[in-house]
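Researcher: Hi, I'm a grad student and pretty new to this. My advisor asked me to get structures for two proteins we've been looking at. I'm not sure of the right format, so I'll just paste the first sequence and hope you can take it from there.
Model: That works fine. Here's the first sequence with its structure tokens right after it:
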Amino acid sequence: MTAATEVPAGRHGDGAAPVIFALATGAGRAAIAVMRISGAGSDAILRSLCGGLPEPRRASLRGIWRRDADGGQGVLLDRAVVLWFPGPNSYTGEDSAELHLHAGPAVISGVADALVALGARPAEPGEFTRRAFASGRLDLVQAEGIADLIDAETEAQRRQALAQADGAQSRLYEDWAARLRTALAHQEALIDFPDEDLPPEVEDELLGTIAGLRDEMQAYLDDGSQGERLRRGLVFAIVGEPNVGKSSLLNALAQRDAAIVSSRAGTTRDAIEVRVVLGDAPVTLVDTAGLRETEDEIEAEGVRRALFHVKQADCVIHVFSGAAVPDKVGPDSIMVCNKIDEVAAPPGITGISVRSGEGMETLRDVLAQRARDLTQGRAAAPLTRARHRAAIEETARHLARAADDAWPEVRGEEMRLAMRALGRLTGAVDVEALLDTVFGQFCIGK
């Protein structure tokens, strides 16, 4: 190769994507840091760093070197476990490698500098997974499942995200797409051969398929947003009149002093939020200002914000004390009578004493069951994002129009629009702007 055509190991003159690298492990003091490398040219970089390629998919202890400009041995940066994954049998579908380094900042910095010198560049957020999508290793729905798996806080979130990453949703959507493709082929036959006296059962079967798909999608959409709620977490608002123990209840459920507690009415002026886990779902508890008429401008604003949180909440915990049950703030409020060490709770109402702890385990069970009811349905592959819901709603609308239209050409166009909407869901059609949004939410190194 002449001087005019020479390029570094990680760059290519044929327009191929450059080699990228990033830490796959978090920042902070640790024993091991995993550096991921991917792209055409990773083999040349690995040979330069450690003197040769390990056997594919077998861990090998190697010295990691920063070579001299003249190709000499250079400086030993670390002794690390090296893994080599030749494409297409890798996460990204490209030639890839992992360096399991000692996690000292000097080691990481030195290896990163050596990679840049060899022509690689730092990866952008989500770039490894985006390359996996581009190479067909996974679809867009699976990629979003991987992002959710990284962010999972609870066991239920982990199960849901792992099922999505493993393709549970994608298999359902692909089944719909395959049936729709078959129906569209039959519709095209009816349009192209109107004088061929095709059997009437062809159109009957076509209309039956369209109606069946539309009904399946409508039933799938009617899920109470359980998967979406589990993914983002729930909001439980604690409301009630002043001085009934709302802040004390928040502290008891959070098991720490998150809110100021005082016998003076109106202590809480603004909403206080605490994240807990109830029923294997992440729940944000919101302690709100006491609901009452007041001339105090600041307290009145607190009451207004409390009512706003009631409207936004997935569940309202309505706390009161005494024998008289107040009117519910929301139709699905959980009524809780506090201070049962002073006055017994009315019949059928959950009674507690935050002061003594009496009834608190029962209340936690009630709240956990409500969280499960709101997040854990029967669907094996629940909807998890508003984007998915919007795409399926659009698909169902086009199918409904196709079923209602007697003109074959119009019906065929509606079916094609349905196919396009379903294709955008998994990334089977051009969705470049959408890809930037989806993969931009990933962390560096994934």
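Researcher: Oh nice, that was easy. Here's the second one.
Model: And its structure:
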Amino acid sequence: MADNASLSRTDSTLRRTVQDHIDELPMWADGTTLPSVPMTGMQWLIWSLAAAGKFFEGYVVFMTGVALPLFSREFNIGAFEHGLIGAASLFGILVGAITLGGLSDRFGRKPMFVIEMIIFVAFLVALCFATNYIQVVFFLFAQGLALGCDYPTAHMIISENIPSSKRGKLVLGAFAFQAVGALVGTGIGFLVLSLLPELGAWRWMYASAVIPAVLVTIGRFYIVESANWLLGRGEVAKAEHEAKRLLVRKPQYPGDIKLAAAAASQSPAESGQSFAALFNSVNRRATILASVPWFLQDLGTYGIGIFTPTILAAAVGGTSDHARSIADVILQDMVAAKGAALITSLLILGILFAVLLADVVGRIRLQVFGFIGCAVGLFLASLSAYFADGEELLLIFAGFMLFNFMTNLGPNAQTYLLAGEVFPTAIRGKGAGFAAAFAKVGAVLTAFLFPVLLDSIGTQALLYGLIVTSLLGAAVTWLYRIETTGVNLETLSAKPGSLR
């Protein structure tokens, strides 16, 4: 291993950008460089804390699918109330992304990164003590506010603090924990039902996340502020201080950090420009690409994800009414939870492939291919209406598993990645927040309407509708494509919407 004298670089007093310092390759004494940029401890801390936020989103949102039958029985609610509960977290994400997420452009990435977790923990604890379904809806909504803020903030806090060559892999690697959370959430739901087969078991399901969430909240107080954000506001000295904290390593390089003031620095007031900037001639293409495919993707991902246990329970148990015993409700819910966990596992496999391929194949190609694959999976599941004697369940499993794999390989992963890359630094929080909020309009509509439509028009018709939206998502992605693979964020910020 090289010592301090073995690692050198050109004149350390040369003033460069934040990303120049982050991307700097250490040089051996003989003039050769290392093949890649080593990550620092602070960079890994930032990444792990951001990944934890995505974990909690998958954990809470998808656990709601397991808890729904218990809510239904304990509070004696129908399809309309089911829809409210299913949509509550997603509506909160919508509001949080558009209101809180954009605040990171004005107040900083770190403050919002901390505040969102404090909100999440507070209402997670409150949910465990809810006494009626209205309280459940409100507390799930409040948790969603925090998770919505996390959509743009977590992406930016990773992408603005890591090497360009690792951006795609690490942002998607953190996003993968949404799928991990979804799988663990359904698994914990099944485990709690096994150990505590009673209607109140849902309280312990949500309580299981409290202590981990508190630890993540504490950890977020110790990260650095984005030097990129500080530099964009003209706060050069603070940006240099935070960049030095970010890049502490042994042996140390660079020896000193001198940042060049941004050519067009944003003052604190200017950095708070309105959302109208997202729709001007420079940024409109990026806004459409970041928002519309994500909206179309969320129609399927959250509808299928939340209500997979409900659909499987119907397939396993047939048509049932409210006269079932509590034991029947719990047994059927356990069977459905096991099936949902198996199907959800394909989300993890899909995101692993996305991590491996995003910087090789490219964001746009994977998103288009993934949308088409989602349509194929949904079509396969729709064929279950023409079969019986167990064959229909096999088709539902096969179709939903293919859907989950393709959505995380393509649109579910790539829309999140693109939304945090295609906007200039000064409005990156607003742009990513708007895209996430617009997407969650689709998720909320689907979550709210799914139980009603399942009762009125049936599973097959719903699946046909989602097939159409998946194909439309592929078309919009290609028409408004901006390929960001391997491109420095500062280049994207200087020429937004120009890379096709």
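Researcher: Is there anything I should tell my advisor about the second?
Model: You could mention this: The CA atoms of residues 4 and 251 lie 5 Å apart.
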